[in-house]
């Protein structure tokens, strides 16, 4: 009887009665690349400049390996207690609740959703900066590099917000594969443009910039205080550039059950993180070779390059399209949390549960729910307004990232793995996991200090609603 209720009827339902998942390791890889490679890839040259050739390269490789390890641990915890035949954990929070218990579940939720909301606000701001950069690029090309091309990014934040209101009406994460694949292609595009422009600059006749094994020189390029703070911030930037733990379980929940989700997800993790590391290394190291110790914070929006202006414009356009998709990858878990809570609290409410089917020409049947439309629209308006009020919010997002990096990327994955695999206390694996946790906790503290310093500096010069 139970079987006939969701009767594998045309293959629409999964073994547990949920809507059938259709994702593969390819769509999983696309989701990962979309979530991980943000426009921050273009600031890695600055980070390498702070650390130098040796430490910069080591930090890049180290955090790629840490991220790969912890993502493997999370993949095996998707089904519990058995990694292949156990019950599914569809979200990160549910996974923590089932494996570690209620108290840790609350802490996980606080860290995860604070970071997700912070990232969507940050993406709104970052997309508007790239839109502004296109306008400035055309202005510089027309009137010269010394021209006053200042422009406000508030109208562009509003444009980005409107696009997100429309895209947010896509019912759930399972229907976003196409958007993630488009966004992943965009990240390849603008990272490649950054790499190409760097190579062109390196190849220029007479090109000579100052680089160093240890980066910027104390007493020449900066003070010892600035060197310390910038080193902290650079380590944090690279560590958090890899962080995608807050959406990793939700990504795995889009994968079909055959082959086993953990196998497909591990393949996605290897592909996604390898691709990410390759582009990070090229952008960071080639960017440092191109600009040396004077590397700008972002060489597409910070005008490390002025010409060819059309290529700079294309690079920024690709960033914008990528951030449109990345916003949805980070916002969908927030949407899902509130909508699930509303359905449980008011199961009889038509506002919460009733779906209307609208036929859209060339698209097909579209499912619409009144609460979903209202709530998601209000959320996008909130993130847009927050980005407008705090235009230095990237520093705040850096702090949120610092605070959530340790629990989401290292602590919960290692603790859940130790519990699920029943690893004996004080065994070599147990000691290794604990040492990894301590190391990453120190990195989090260091990066948090750097982010707080950045916020204090921003507040000193903050003038609300001023043209950039």
TrEMBL record:
Subcellular localization: Cell membrane; Endomembrane system
MF (Gene Ontology): symporter activity
Family per record: Belongs to the amino acid/polyamine transporter 2 family. Amino acid/auxin permease (AAAP) (TC 2.A.18.1) subfamily.
One GO location term (cellular component): endomembrane system
Coiled coil (residue ranges): none
Primary role: Carrier protein involved in proton-driven auxin influx. Mediates the formation of auxin gradient from developing leaves (site of auxin biosynthesis) to tips by contributing to the loading of auxin in vascular tissues and facilitating acropetal (base to tip) auxin transport within inner tissues of the root apex, and basipetal (tip to base) auxin transport within outer tissues of the root apex. May be involved in lateral roots and nodules formation.
Topological category with respect to the lipid bilayer: Multi-pass membrane protein
Superkingdom of origin organism: Eukaryota
Domain Amino acid transporter transmembrane: 21-456
Gene that encodes it: LOC101511648
Source species: Cicer arietinum
GO BP of this protein: amino acid transport; auxin-activated signaling pathway
PANTHER family, alphabetized: OS05G0424000 PROTEIN-RELATED (PTHR48017)
UniProt name for this protein: Amino acid permease 6-like
Transmembrane segments: 30-48, 54-75, 176-200, 270-288, 308-330, 373-390, 396-414, 435-456
Keywords (A to Z) from UniProt: Amino-acid transport, Auxin signaling pathway, Cell membrane, Membrane, Symport, Transmembrane, Transmembrane helix, Transport
Record carries keyword Hydrolase: no
